[in-house]
Amino acid sequence: MGRIILTGDRPTGKLHLGHYVGSLRNRVLLQNEGNYERMFVFIADVQALTDNADNPEKVRQNIIEVALDYLSCGLDPEKVTIFIQSQIPELHEMTQFFSNLVTVQRLQRNPTVKTEMALRGFDGGASDDNRRGLPVGFFTYPISQAADICAFKSTTVPVGEDQEPMIEQCREIVRSFNGTYGPVLVEPEILLPSNLVCRRLPGTDGKAKMSKSLGNCIYLADERKEMEAKVKGMFTDPGHLHVEDPGKVEGNPVFTYLDAFAVDSDFEKYWPDYANLQEVKDHYTRGGLGDMKCKKFLINVLNDRLEPIRERRHAYEQDIPAVYEILRKGSEAAREVAAQTLHEMKDAMRINYFDDAALIASQAEKYRR
What we know:
Blueprint (H helix, E strand, L loop, with lengths): L3 E6 L7 H17 L4 E6 L1 H5 L6 H18 L7 E4 L4 H11 L4 H5 L2 H9 L16 H4 L1 H11 L4 E3 L5 H18 L7 E3 L32 H9 L20 H9 L2 H7 L6 H10 L4 H27 L2 H30 L7 H11 L2
Parallel strand pairs: 1-2, 2-3, 4-5
């Protein structure tokens, strides 16, 4: 069997630069390399509903936003199967079967789940007045994610490093299923961005992670003025009060973003005083280089990367019914694959009652008088 990619995003808002450097940019490269038999990219609306059950319209409206971001970044529906999670009922059936193979204690130890619980106030960290009960669906979404991966027998899952515990839990589920019922499923491998900086892009406020819920994002769909305002207001080194002061590049989001996006040719085009980023870092560290000069350079670099994405998005926005048709066809194609995997799982679990002629015959013989 050839190599197969599965990856996706929750439709809780437009996608941002963290999504782009963490996974989206790499997906387009992988798609164009042609080294994989198939590639599935999905919009995880079921997972989004685990903490938005009281606001399904938010999820509904953002399906198209994520689809537009996918297409504008360069994902090609002729090369990639793009689908909506909720339109594949086989995934939910697999989730139920997998839930019998995972303990509550194991879910509680998943660091990604614990982090996400804290972020949404599900862990009791909020005040008593604001404490939110933990939805079962949210608690068990690593099992749902395992079903997404296993349904397509995915060999490779390109994600950010925060998802490593989720992939490991999926691998455990695969081993448990195959050991219990038979070798049906495939253990996936994680594919992390080669640039370490890209694995967890910080927010513009210097927080550990760019997050829609924290309001510290630069979105792929941001127009230049919006992006420029966000970069100008970006957190830097709080000790760098004057231009002549020595500055720190470690933990400074401006330099983290430059690490993720800038290449040597950008300096020739926009900042010929320097040959590369290391020269800028050295100058900033010894003092004599202002934050705003660095930010203006970053604005130009980001605009070069985002302008083609904006142009493609504006083009797709002119024919929204065609975008939904891409999602419909992709969902139909994905469901065919998932249905075949589920059929094989049921065979292995011996719950294929109506397909098992030997079972029916033996039961008939047993009760024949």
